[in-house]
Amino acid sequence: MQFCSDPPRVETVRTRVTEQFGIEYPIFAFSHCRDVVAAVSRAGGMGVLGALYFTPEELELELKWIDEHVGGKPYGVDVVMPAKYEGADLGDAEELVGKLQGMIPAEHRQFLENLLEEHGVEPSTESAGRVLLGWTDQTARPQVEIALKHPIALLASALGPPPADVAELAHQHGVKVGGLASNARHARKQVEAGVDIIIAQGTEAGGHTGDVSTMVLIPEVVDAVGEDTIVLAAGGIGRGRQMAAGLALGADGVWTGSIWLTVDEADTPERALPKLLAATSRDTVRSRAWTGKPARFLKTAWTEAWESEKSPGYLPMPMQFMLIADALPRIARSGDGELVTFPVGQIVGSMNQVKPAAQVVYDLIEEYVESIERLNTITEG
Amino acid sequence: MQFCSDPPRVETVRTRVTEQFGIEYPIFAFSHCRDVVAAVSRAGGMGVLGALYFTPEELELELKWIDEHVGGKPYGVDVVMPAKYEGADLGDAEELVGKLQGMIPAEHRQFLENLLEEHGVEPSTESAGRVLLGWTDQTARPQVEIALKHPIALLASALGPPPADVAELAHQHGVKVGGLASNARHARKQVEAGVDIIIAQGTEAGGHTGDVSTMVLIPEVVDAVGEDTIVLAAGGIGRGRQMAAGLALGADGVWTGSIWLTVDEADTPERALPKLLAATSRDTVRSRAWTGKPARFLKTAWTEAWESEKSPGYLPMPMQFMLIADALPRIARSGDGELVTFPVGQIVGSMNQVKPAAQVVYDLIEEYVESIERLNTITEG
């Protein structure tokens, strides 16, 4: 455990995005853990809570906690409102779950049970709990309603722009709307749909990604959306040099995610943490084996099994996760551990030490400033 | 066709690599075309000729031409000396070809013939010409001998470091040795093998690539090889903002390739050029369908067919190219054009205009300087 040092004494890092949100550093930190969100915002960046796994009631409690611990600093909430998923027209959340459960083929259930048995994972003793999560319109909309009752500064939407009425509602509350985009065409569409801030995310990122790298993507998106739209660079950013590169590519700030999985404050599962700390940048893979859409994960026996010849293939979102939801906690606590996987980007190769979140922020800024100083030496000759 | 403007009036861009080679800009340009190599070196960068496709006699003529047209500026040669390939122990080049030809399965030949017929490609009327190319030790070594008789400044080696005696020979001639690496471990091994300059190439690059992105790879390699080794950033670099990002990540210069396929001076096949100009960054794929090792190409009916259910799979290097060598010129001049593909990186999405090579160099520098100026505005506040 490192001692959390004082904030670095650096020159100001001032972009449109720090001015807009009144934050010190243009560093956005996506996390499912409220402690991380509050810690990053307190350290001068901006924490963004991923709402995906929470019921509206739970989300209310999380945000109340953040409000009490964020010291008045701004923070955001991230919801998932995919434009396309199985069951968009199948009624409310409860109805939807019932209908989709019935659509999961027996072959898939059998493949999963065999896989779990092979790896010594304990049998299921209780019925699967929440399986739909917040990645349908039906389940994300109540999250938005809760979020907008709190003093959030940003509502971000993964997997496409939020529906027009949701963007409008956010704007009525004085809340900026962010959208993740993995190509320039989608970025333009999001701006047309009312998104204020494009989070351009390269293929090296953890979680849902496209296939274009951050290096190629950022200038394309910056040029595509025009000067009036703020762009954050995401994917492969976990060190100050990468932050400098993201801004050099034309972004106004950086959006980070993976690096907060290994901070002191994180609630990363006990069996996943050592794997994350040990992994190299080559140990990830884009796979549909978790959500049904391509997302980057640790490469494990889990991702390999779903790609193997025996695999029945992937189910569409949200059915793939519904199928595996009950297995994940069992994998986390029993069996040989080989199936334990986790969404993470290629930056995992640099995540070798557990540090306080504030320290990660300060380290980013210190290396960023060193990088800029070096560039000036190079360019001035 | 643009008018080739005067060199940009910019502040100096001075790094260890410009000092070492006495060049104006830390921009390396890989090309199989001598005209491009000479043009980039004359414009203040450093052209590097890919020797792969040339016999020793042809290479002699190409280098003689460059010597006469490069205006005394430094240039380099790139050879391919893979550490692992089929037939490394099968005697000299002629013997090797005979033996490997006999090892190509009939199933693969039949799959190829069917594919060509489906796309209306004319039947073969002459026996395949050169099929082995310079990607074996047996065929690359004579290229090295020729190259070292010319005033080259750099001998680069793709697919792993050159054998120790080759590196030593280059050093005896006062020639620096470069090695392409796609991960930090390989980079370290190359330095141990006598490589002076590591070209760290991300997955977004054209041609043979690994799977780690440039954004993640460069800091890893810079830290792994230590302060005494020069690192060039490669993969996804075709604009000034990307050059700035590459240097921000810690590199001493940038290595570019794809962007020289669409310059005035390039000899890119007539049917491939419009495809390159029209492609977006999403239109490439890593495939073994050309050389047997994963390399990035335009995504076409060719790359898709080899991934389809009917595909017999790929042959190991150099047999896959031996199989297809005779088909490539036929595809280039006949049939429906859908099989026409080409090695290129994701930067292809930014290659939308044919320009003189010198103009590409100057545009890179101008945008680079703009990017550095913007970073300074941001950081000084």
From TrEMBL, chains A, B:
GO molecular function, one term: monooxygenase activity
Alphabetic keyword roster: Flavoprotein, FMN, Monooxygenase, Oxidoreductase
Annotated signal sequence range: none
SUPFAM superfamilies: Inosine monophosphate dehydrogenase (IMPDH)
The keyword Transmembrane is annotated on this UniProt entry: no
Protein name: Nitronate monooxygenase family protein
Annotated source species: Actinomadura napierensis
